[in-house]
Fold this protein.
Amino acid sequence: MYRNVTWLCCLCSVFFMPFAHAQADSDMQASEVFCQSWFGQNAGLTPLPLANTNVTLQEVSLGGQTSGWLFRTDQVPPVCKGKRGQIAVLVAVGTDARIKGLTVLAHKEDPRYFRRLKAAFFEQFRDRRVDGTSATFEAVTQATFSSGAIIRDVTEGMKTVLAQPEIATKLTSDKKGG
């Protein structure tokens, strides 16, 4: 029995490993494309290891200086779910604690309702701070679960990210300004 289980595990890892690498490559390419559209063509990404946490972040730099960070809401606590499951949103935040942009990478929501989330819904996040202040966002009627999940994902994820010591020390004084 042990040999059968071991053989099955080896077979599964050989079969599924290319898909895992392809997904990781696809995620990295998406991160790079969106990073450059939000921060500029010369923006570079570096994985940021955080002490004592499993939060996954990427630091954005321009000319050797930190310009902000990218994170996926499905990789930063807390878990916020829509009607059918977690929605993965890629979020860019600048050193001024303002959202540079966001985009949905994956979801399992009902397409009929999810299509109601138009560009205006996502634009309301741009240049807004979500650092413990009272930022409010408008949900979309007839896509309430999905839009509410995205709002919670982004706002709660931002609070988690900005609270990390590695991030908090690099925030600019503009964060306090308004």
About this structure: The radius of gyration is 18 Å. Helices lie at 2-39, 111-114, 119-123, 144-163, 165-168, 174-177. The chain has a mean pLDDT of 79.
